[in-house]
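It is worth pausing here to work through a concrete case rather than discussing structure prediction in the abstract. The textbook approach is simple: state the sequence, then state the predicted structure, then interpret. We follow exactly that order.
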Amino acid sequence: MITSPIPLFPLGLVLMPGVHVPLHLFEPRYRAMLRDVKDTTRLFGVIMPPSDSTEDDLPPGRIGCIAEITAIDSLPDGRANIIITGGERFRFETYLEIGTPYRVGHIAEHVDIADDPLAVALAAEQVRTLARRAIAASMVLQDVEGSPPPLPDEPETLAFHVAHMLHADADMQYEVLSGRSTLARLELLDVTIRVGLADLEEAAARHLRERDDDPPFTLPDS
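Step two, the predicted structure:
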């Protein structure tokens, strides 16, 4: 459930609902934020400022995502490594001045509109199939062994995970995050994956051929 006001962490990444992200907290203001929330809600908001603005002039209506701290590794010098998990999305309204060294914002809910369930289910199956192919090809290019990681069953969260796993650019990820239609998110991912899938799979096939053709390494004669 959205609570407002909430500590805010303007950051150059898009946190997606249900996605786990590691963060390294080193700035004094965010170390203070961690101290304030770790024994209470463990929640703060992550929001990416537009490319043409800064955190100082964050525009009202910008969409962010609630972060829940799920793991903390405190370091002796006061820094910390944490794991956060994306929760509900929110709409930024205004900053509040309450005397903290970190930003605090007044936020509101940002929820989806209703879509046709059948259209959503069909779109989700298409995206799931395309994403598995793209992820498998990416794993080959990175020489990662094993099976591709599982994708969510729920269409409502599928696009969030796919955009994160395929390392879509920040603007694309923000479009996925900020949209209010599950169907529109899935259709956007469908088109985006299709554009580069053939080249990606060809590159993966070429990588496999080159790797298999490489002679085994041997020590030179002494």
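Step three, interpretation. Residues 216-222 have pLDDT under 50 and may be disordered. DSSP finds five helices and six strands in the chain.
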